[in-house]
Amino acid sequence: MGQHRGASGSRGVSRGPVIAVVAVLLVILAVLGWMRLRDRISDQGTAAAQTCVEGDAVLDVTADPDIALPLGELARRYNDSAPVVRDHCISVTVTPAPGESVADALAAGDPVHWTGPGPAPALWIPQSSQSLDRVADRPGLVNGQPKSVASSPVVLAAPPALADTLAGRPTGWQDLAGLQSDPRSLDAAGLSGWGSLRLALPTGAGSEPTGLAAEAVAAAVSNAGAGPVTAEHAASTPVVAALSQLGIGSAALDGGPPATTAAALVALGSQPHPAAGALHATPATEQQVYRATRSGAPLATLTPTGATPIADHPAAVLATGWVDETHSRAAAQFVEYLRQPEQAATLRDAGFRTEDGVPTGTDAVPFAPVATALQPSSGAVAATLTGVVTHPVAAANATVLLDVSGSMSTTEGGASRLRNTAAALTAQVARAPDYSGLGLWTYSRGLDGTKPYRVVVPTGPLTDPVAGVTRREALETALGGLTPATATSTYASVQAAYKAAVDGFVTGRPNSLLLITDGPNDDTSISSRQLLASIRDVTVPGKPVPVNVIVIGENSDVATLRQLAEQTGGTAVTVPTSDGPELEQAVGKLLS
């Protein structure tokens, strides 16, 4: 009989499935371990980057003082965010410095031989692009196109009573020269006791609003509209005359104009009696006036009609070669940070306009919309305009004594000496400011009865009427109709013209006599010694009349003429020919 297994017996477990399960678990654990290792490696790489394996780097920013304070606050905020550029921990420092000083240092040297204020910058934010134009002849200095981080229109800062009165007229940039030169202009406007507009035009480092205002005046008086002002505009008579009047008036202020815009604002706001103050107004940015009023200065803004110049605060990232790649990239990153809405709000709180809006207005500084922004001129034109303000063409009172003897018929360059000389004088008459005084005498022999000279156009302001036309037009017509005569009675003519100039001396203006001749005196009735003695006899202390002399070609009288010029405080110039540039240059110099 066969036997059966009991009910309590058991079978053995198969090892194959167990091994499979274990293998799967091992694979899963391996994958999970690899993923954790990968994440750990990634975290370690991120941590290494955040610990700035290349070390610390300082981004030096130089900014105009008007924007340096809010930029310093933004730099601290930026530093708190622990910025990293190319594995460097970046910290930003801001140094205030006027744009003119930084531009001069950038143009003169390099970071190793830096002579400017503070450390050599990797990022430069001047008040306006005028400062950038000062380094335009150094290509490759700035990386890319600078971006504006904030802007502020240029206005006039003035006591509220003056600002309100002139705004109500209204007053344009083209009106400022007349208000400056007319001793009763503000009285006529209803401000009794104010006299003329005493407009201070600072020209030291830290006075960019003066240059921007000069552009606005030039655009207005030359009808350049929104600009830009060109070299032709800058050299035109209306522009030179207007800026000269403003410059002369500013220089005549008690104590002279303050050196900087900031100093002018302090002086303007601290006068207890504005009408009798040393100055009445000064160009400034809207933001500068806003800051002054927040400090308690009793000032307001006057925005003259016409195109308004803008201080655009461009952020210029200096290129590699001046700084390394890390600093150049850090500068570009900081500029983008400044232009973000949160930072723009901080700049608006400080009185700047940004792409996102304008500050909240006050009674003194309303932050009104700019109707027409003035397009900036080139650096060369801006320098020319500022140069006229700094070195104005004075309102001269000059008499020209012109030799029309037979020798002036000598042909040079296809025309006679007389025709070439008349052309040079005509060009100067056209350039001369309206407020200048000018007259013309000619001489030879017997031009007016027995007199060897003739008063062709009496000396006086160019805008005054002479025989139904302006003196300027009378001079141009007379110069165009001159013809050579005969002899050369130089000495007798100089005696008469010099005495007339002394008798007609105009106080407050440079008076002079300009003698233009090409031949020796042939009137033997007066010797050279007698001439010099007679000039000495009629000279009046306190009424200087220099005799300036232009000698064309060879002249045996040149020693006497040089002595005449030296005795009276004048200048003697010899030009080789009448058809070269030397004659026109001499005429321009001696009549300016």
From TrEMBL:
InterPro entries the UniProt entry points to: VWF_A, vWFA_dom_sf
UniProt entry tagged with the keyword Transmembrane: yes
Pfam families: SBP_bac_11 (PF13531)
Source organism phylogeny: Bacteria, Bacillati, Actinomycetota, Actinomycetes, Mycobacteriales
Gene3D superfamilies associated with the record: von Willebrand factor, type A domain (3.40.50.410)
Identification of the protein by name: von Willebrand factor type A domain-containing protein
Membrane-spanning segments: 12-35
Domain VWFA: 397-590
Organism annotation: Rhodococcus tukisamuensis
Keywords: Membrane, Transmembrane, Transmembrane helix
Domain of life: Bacteria
